[in-house]
Amino acid sequence: MKYMNACFLWLSIWTVATTQAHAQTIQLRSPDHHLKLNAVIAANGGLTYELHRKGIAVVKPSVLGFVLSRPEVRLDQFELLRVDSSLVDNTWKPLWGEVSTIRNFYTEVKLSLRQKTSPGIRLNVVFRLFNDGMGLRYEFPEQPGFVHFTVKDELTAFSLAGDHKAFWIPGDFDSNEYSYQTSRLSEIDATKAAAQEKDIAVTAVIGPHSVQTPLMMKSGNGLYINVHEAALINYPALNLTLDPASLTLQATLVPDVTGNKAWLQTPFSTPWRTVIVSDMATEILASKLILNLNAPPPADDYSWIKPQKFLGVWWEMHVGKATWQMAGGKHGATTDNTKRYIDFASRHGFDGVLVEGWNAGWEDWFGNWKEEVFDFVTPYPDYDLQELTAYARSKGVKLIMHHETSGSVTNYERRLDTAYRFMKYHGMETVKTGYVGKIIPRGEHHDGQWMVNHYNRVAEKTRSYRIMLDAHEPVHPTGLHRTFPNWMANEAARGSEFNNAPTLGITPEHTTILPFTRLMGGPMDFTPGLFHMQLNQFDPARSTRVRTTLAKQLALYVTMYSPLQMAADLPENYEQYPDAFQFIKDVAVDWDDTRILEAEPGDYITIARKAKGTTSWFLGAITDENARELNVKLDFLDDAVTYEATVYQDAPGADWDHHPELYQIRQVKVTRKSQLKVPLAPGGGCAVALRKIK
Ligand code: NOJ
Ligand code: CA
C-alpha cells in the first residue's frame, strides 16, 4: 500500500479497525482550514464523503459511485490503492470577465480505488477544497480489460443537513426556462410547478422531486449553499432528485434515446460536482470556484474576442410589430429596417446589430420536427446582405448572425462550416444560436450527452473560425467560457423575452435569483434594457407588461453579468428616454474588478464594477417586489479621486405595476468616503455611473 496513517497540513488519513475489517478515513482541509471533507471507505468498501464548514455539516455522509450497463456492474464497493494530495496556489488572468485576476487556491486529494468485486475496475475520485467550496470528479483511468463503458446511473449524492430554503426550477431534460420557485426542500413539487408553465416550447419534466442545478439553498443556521457542476464535457447534464425523507439529493443524469446516460471510453474524467458554501450570500456571487475547475484555453491569439453591446431587429418581432417570416407583409429583417438599426447603433456607439428573420425558412420553422429547416446561407429577397454588409462597415457597426436551428441539430451540424464561412465572408464575427424545438436526432434531449457534445463542438468550431458565440436554449453553462473564451454568453434560463409570455412571465424577484443560480455557470444573455413596459404597443390584444421599473432595467446591466449585452428595446422606445438611455450607452461590458456589496437570493442584489482599463465604476442595485433603501459605502472607489456620480433612480411614486417609467437622474460628487442612499421602488432598482473628475 502506498499510503499510511499520516497527517500533513491539509491532509489526514486514519484507519478504524472493526472485528472483520477496517474503515479508512481521508480528511482534506481547505487552505484556510474552514472546510473539512472526509472521504470514508467503509469496512464493506462503500465509499462516502461528507463536508463541514467551521464545524457545521454542509453535506452529511453521501454515497459515491456508478451503475454501468456495459459492462453490467455496480461500482460502489472499493479498496483503496493509493492516496495522492497537493496544495495549489496560482493566479490567472481571464481574457475578459468580472475581475482581471483570479486566484486558484485549493487543496486536493486523489483516491485511487479498485472495485472490490469482479472485474476489479479501477476508478479514481478527486476532491478539491477551495476556501469557498468543494469540487469532486471521477476519473476512469486507462486499464487492461476495461476500455469502452456505458453509464446507466451516477450514484453521487448530496445528503443535506436540514430542510433548507431552496431556490429551484423543475428538473427537466429539455428546458431550463422555468420561473424560479422558493420553498423548503421538503415542499418541492416540480410536477405542480411545471404544470403552471404554459409558454415553454419543449419540456421533459423528470418528476415531482427533481430540480435542476445550479440549486441555491439557505440553511436555518445561516449557510448559503450552491450545488452545480463544472466543465460539462462529453457527459449529460446533472439534475438532482430529492428524497424528501432523508433530504438527500441524488444525481439524475439526462438519458439518451437508449435510456443510458453516457457512452464513454477510458481514460475519461467526469465533470466536477460542485458545492459552494459561505455564511455570506455575497461570497456565493463572488466565487470563482467553477471557473477554476475548468481548463484554460489552448495557447493562441484571442485578441479578436471583444466584449460588446448590441441592438437587434428582435424585440419588435416578440411584441408583434414585425414578423420573422417574410410572408404576411410585416417582415422585420428588411434592408431598410436593418439600416435604421445600423444608423441608430452607429449614432449611439453600439458595436453590433443582431438580425433575426433574415433567412428563408421562417414560414414553417417550428413544431413539425422536420429535418430541413434553415440552410443558414439564404437571405430573404427583401434582405440585401451585400448592401447591408457594406453599409454596416461604413457605419462602424458589425452585423450579428442568427442561427435558429429549430432543434434540427443534425441539419445544423451538416452546414456548420458553410454557415461560418458565409458569416466571415460578410464580415460577421458573432453568432447567436437557438434551439427552440424538439431535438433531431429524434429522441435526444437538449441536455443529454449528444447535445452537450454538440454545443461544445459549436464552441470549438466557432473558436477555430474566430467567431464569438451566444447560445439560446442550450444546456446550463458550467464555466466552459474559460476553455472557450469565444463562447461569451448563453441564455439557458428564463430570459427577458419571457416578459412577453402570457402566463407567469418574469416576476420582480426572478432577477434577484438568477445570479445565484443560472449565472453561477457563466454569463447570461438576459437581454435587459426594456423601456416600454406595456406590451400592447403594437398589438392591443396583449395584456402583458414588464414587471420592473425603468431604473431597474438599467441596473441589470451591472447585476446581470455578460460580456455581450443587448439593448433589447426598439430604437423608437429609446428615443423617448434619451437621458436614461445614456446609461446603457455608457455602461461597460468588461471589468477589472467587481464588488458584491449586498445580496440576498430572492430579495436584492447590489454590485459595483470597475470598467476595464479605466477609473470608472458602475453600480447596479435591484430589489424584488418590495421597496427597499439602498444604503452603501462607496469605499471601493479609487483612493484620492473625486467622482461625479450620475444616479438613475426610481422617482417617488414609481413601482413595477403602475408607474414603471417614473425615474429621475441626479448628479452628485462623491469619494470613497461617501455613502450612497437611494430609495428603490417595489420591483425597482438604481444604476450609477461613477466618472473621475479629479
Ligand atoms: C428563442 C430565443 O431565445 C429568442 O431570442 C429568439 O428570438 C427566438 N428563439 C427565435 O429564434
Ligand atoms: Ca423575495
Structure description:
- With 694 residues, this protein is an alpha+beta fold.
- The chain has a domain at 528-694: TIM Barrel.
- It is built from 12 helices and 39 strands.
- The strands form 6 sheets. The protein has a 10-stranded antiparallel sheet with strand order 1-2-3-4-5-6-14-21-20-17, with no helix packed on it. Strands 9, 10, 11, 12, 15, 16, 18, 19, 23 and 24 form a 10-stranded antiparallel sheet that branches. A 7-stranded parallel sheet has the order 30-29-28-27-26-25-31.
- Strand 4 (35-41) and strand 5 (47-53) form a beta hairpin.
- Helix 10 (550-559) packs parallel to helix 12.
- The chain is globular, with a radius of gyration of 25 Å.
- Mean pLDDT is 97; it is low at 1-5.
- Calcium ion binds at residues 509, 602-603, 624.
**CATH class descriptor name of one domain:** Alpha Beta
The count of DSSP E runs of length 2 or more, i.e. the number of strands, is: 39
Which range does the strand content fall in? 35-45%
Structural class: alpha+beta
pLDDT averaged residue by residue: 97
SSE diagram, text form:
Elements: E1 6-7, E2 11-17, E3 22-29, E4 35-41, E5 47-53, E6 56-63, E7 66-70, E8 72-75, E9 78-92, E10 102-115, E11 122-130, E12 133-140, E13 148-154, E14 157-160, E15 165-168, E16 181-184, H1 190-195, E17 210-212, E18 215-218, E19 224-230, E20 238-243, E21 248-253, E22 262-265, E23 268-269, E24 272-278, H2 281-286, H3 289-292, E25 308-313, H4 315-318, H5 335-347, E26 352-355, H6 385-394, E27 398-404, H7 409-425, E28 430-434, H8 449-465, E29 468-472, E30 487-490, H9 510-513, H10 550-559, E31 564-566, H11 571-574, H12 578-586, E32 591-600, E33 604-611, E34 617-623, E35 628-633, E36 643-650, E37 663-670, E38 675-680, E39 685-692
Parallel strand pairs: 25-26, 25-31, 26-27, 27-28, 28-29, 29-30
Antiparallel strand pairs: 1-2, 2-3, 3-4, 4-5, 5-6, 6-14, 7-8, 7-13, 9-10, 10-11, 11-12, 12-23, 12-24, 13-22, 14-21, 15-16, 15-18, 17-20, 18-19, 19-24, 20-21, 32-33, 33-34, 34-39, 35-38, 36-37, 36-39
Helix pairs in contact: 5-6, 7-8, 10-12
The chain binds 1-deoxynojirimycin and calcium ion.
Calcium ion binds at residues 509, 602-603, 624.
